Amino acid sequence: MATLTRGGETAMIGREPGFFDALMARFGRVILIGLPLAFLVIWTMVPLIWALLASFKEPLEIYESRSFWPRNPSLDAYWTVLGMDGFGKWMFNSILVTVVATIVPLILSIIAAYAFARYLFPFRHVLLLLYLVPRIIPRVSLIVPLNDLMTDLGLINTYWVLYITYIASAVPLATWILVGFFKAVPREIEESATIDGANMWNRLRYVILPIAWPGVVTAAVLCIREGWNEFAFVLALVTETGMRTLPYALYMLKDSMGVQDYAVYNAFTILTVLPLLVVYLLLERRVVDSIVSGAVK
To answer: Is the pLDDT of residue 91 over 90?
Structure first.
């Protein structure tokens, strides 16, 4: 602080923020933001890194050694997993169900979100809230009625039972995400397209979707994650080995192997998680940008 004397009175004049103030501000940001983020990254990545390194160890090495790093890295566990009878079928089932459970919900959600965002029909806010009911109800409580319903329809151990349940689970989440992005598109742009002769479908395809494309990508990534990781429905509605998906097969691996081979378990886990990580890494920038822009809007 500096002093200024005028007419016998002394006043305090604040100094301009200097290097020390900037350093303290940066240190405060590191404490408040950097440390929690670092802790979250470590909390998330350490189990995955441990599983990856353990998959390269020999079966007995996991029991004998406390070392984090494998003594003699080996791909034997991966060859064992890839050579399992049915692994290719389980991978195909996961990919097929995930693709269907992503494309169909996106189409339905785009249409529903456009209606909620642009048309002022009665009780639209109530209906939008009711869209969340499938997400609010615990999935465990849905297993018994769904099993009874699908048994009566003769859909147990079919792809259709997975399509129906996965799509019904993904549509509400994707719709809620897209409604916010569609509302952020200025109505004036659509009105200009309407004056030029564009109908509803043309406005949705050539005006709304190109602007709200980051939101569509985000909804797609979340649908992929939901479909790939889904476990409760496939556990309750599928009993045949050939209809299993990778998460279900991973769950059943412990009972089928007898002796616990943690190297094989971890190799199976890495191969199950890897496709989802690749998809996310390819679309990560789009997802982050859309989340940030959606928060600002």
So the answer is: yes
- Strands 9-13 and 2-6, by their bridges, are antiparallel
- C-alpha 104 chain-centroid distance: 17
Calculate the alpha carbon distances from 130 to 17, 27, 65, 124, 127 in Å: 53, 46, 54, 10, 5
pTM value is 0.78
Amino acid type, 124: R
CATH class entry, domain 84-296: mainly alpha
Contact 174, 215 (CB under 8 A): no
What span, in angstroms and rounded, lies between the C-alpha atoms of 295 and 297? 5
Instruction: Report the alpha-carbon distance of residue 1 to residue 9 in Å, rounded.
Output: 16
Q: Tell me, rounded to whole angstroms, the distance of Cα 8 from its chain centroid.
A: 69
Write the pLDDT tens digit of every residue in 25-58: 676 666 777 777 788 888 888 888 888 888 888 8
Q: Are 113 and 175 in contact (CB under 8 A)?
A: yes
Residue 262 makes CB contacts below 8 A (sequence gap 6+) with 54, 59, 62
Residue closest to 184 by CA, chosen among 126, 113, 123: 113
Residues 6+ apart with CB under 8 A from 51: 266, 269, 270
